[in-house]
Amino acid sequence: MPECHVISLQKGMVVYNQGDPARHWYEVVSGIVRTCRFHGDGHRQLTGFYYSDDVFGVDGDAYSETAEAVTPVLLRRYSAKCLDEADSVAGTSKVLQKALASARQCIFLFGHRTAHARVAAFLIAIAERADAGDGVQLPMTRSDIADHLNLTLHTVSRTISDFARRGLIALDGPQSLWVLDLDGLRAAAGDTGDDTFLFRESA
Amino acid sequence: MPECHVISLQKGMVVYNQGDPARHWYEVVSGIVRTCRFHGDGHRQLTGFYYSDDVFGVDGDAYSETAEAVTPVLLRRYSAKCLDEADSVAGTSKVLQKALASARQCIFLFGHRTAHARVAAFLIAIAERADAGDGVQLPMTRSDIADHLNLTLHTVSRTISDFARRGLIALDGPQSLWVLDLDGLRAAAGDTGDDTFLFRESA
DNA sequence: CGAACAATTGAATCCTTTCAAAGGGAGTGG
DNA sequence: CCACTCCCTTTGAAAGGATTCAATTGTTCG
User: B76-101 as b/e, with b when 16 or more CB fall inside 10 Å?
Assistant: First the structure.
């Protein structure tokens, strides 16, 4: 896995644009990145949030999505050639597996039928990968979350408020919350327990 | 890519179950396969339909989904070990790329906001990979389509009927149709033209 | 022919969106 | 330091769309 450059980007900056030739793929060192597709009718679909050690930008020829910094980020940039030359380069498979796991996480969220279920599943997912130090951070906007869950920002806001009202979570400003009742959230999501069948590592 | 067995399954039969150890992955020779996740609340999410040359069952440790035959199918079964041993085996990367492309196709469908848009996008996708010989075949049930698009079978049925009423398609029984107005369908989907940025092969 | 299953359609309900407005926090400039 | 602006968030009310409940039709298979 050669050709690794480290890149620093400020909040809101673009890593690459949908349609650009996919010359690199990226690994998050710190901060959060979002990837989005823009549909023909102009609306935005957010296909993932990427945290430390997550990879994004794994595409064949041209990028299928735009990638932007949600917070200030540090990235490692790798040459995409090693994905084309493929199996000769060590670690390629792991990168693709990570990309696949990210895609499945997105699909998993969409599998939930109602706004309450989708938002609950999203909060659980965020809480699970958060450092769990002092509460769960939501650095992305309500609009980002909405475009990720295929809802409007109003519905997202209402639903989060409702969870707080019902005592499932406690809000500490719009970007920070505590999970008070994980089982209650899981019930709202319609998921039993650990059905996070995404891409279980075996090695 | 060693250890290839050919398997024949009748309509409705299970290839593997969600949660089973992922000892093999599969390639469709003929027929159609569906993969589904069952959520905690019992409802089914259909994560993909697989046609000739598509691959499915690419998982790390345990299968994240159940796979079933939609029609009678012929499959090639490969040992999953080559995915774990990974980069040493030639062709591994291509398999993962195909799996990633399938996942992105699913995400793409969900990116559409309304029932009309999702059904239209689905029909376009099916029509594109159909042999285009004598119309588009829909061997799966309305319920399958509904669980794939996160709609009810009623809404799917109504929407398809509506497309037929508006002259975008012509129905020849529930399982067969012609696309009369592809641009009209695309407009209904909210997609301009070829924004099928999924996983463009470069090699 | 009857039974079982799939698809279609109607009507009422419920949920999400849309339209509209107000509150809150960060940053700038007077 | 305060006022002002801008953007994000929250919340209300009305409108629209999908689901639910219910019934009918059509097809396949025994």
Answer: bbbbbebbbebbebeebbbbbbbbbb
One-letter identity of residue A49: F
B36 at A interface, C-beta within 8 A: no
B 104-133 residues, CB < 7 A, strand D: 114-116
Record: contact B64-A99, CB cut-off 8 A: no
Q: Indicate the DSSP class of residue B80.
A: T
- What pLDDT does residue B201 have? 41
- Helical (H) or strand (E) element with A193: none
A14-16 β-sheet, strand order: A14-16, A66-69, A33-38, A44-50
Rounded CA-CA distance B98/B96 in Å is 5
Cβ–Cβ < 8 Å for A185, A120: yes
Chain-chain contact of B93 with A97 (C-beta, under 8 angstroms)? no
Lowest mean pLDDT among A108-117, A174-183, B105-114, B189-198: B189-198
Task: Yes or no: say if B10 and B32 are a contact pair by the CB < 8 Å rule.
Answer: no
Q: CB contact, 8 Å: A64 with chain B?
A: yes
pLDDT of B86-139, one tens digit each? 554 567 888 999 999 999 999 999 999 999 999 999 999 999 987 666 789 999
* Residue B59 pLDDT: 95
List the one residue out of A66, A81, A67 whose CA is nearest residue A2.
A81
State CA B201 to chain mean position distance.
Answer: 19
Q: Which of B110, B181, B107, B113 is nearest to B149 (CA)?
A: B110
With beta carbons less than 8 A apart as the criterion, state whether B127 and B183 touch: no
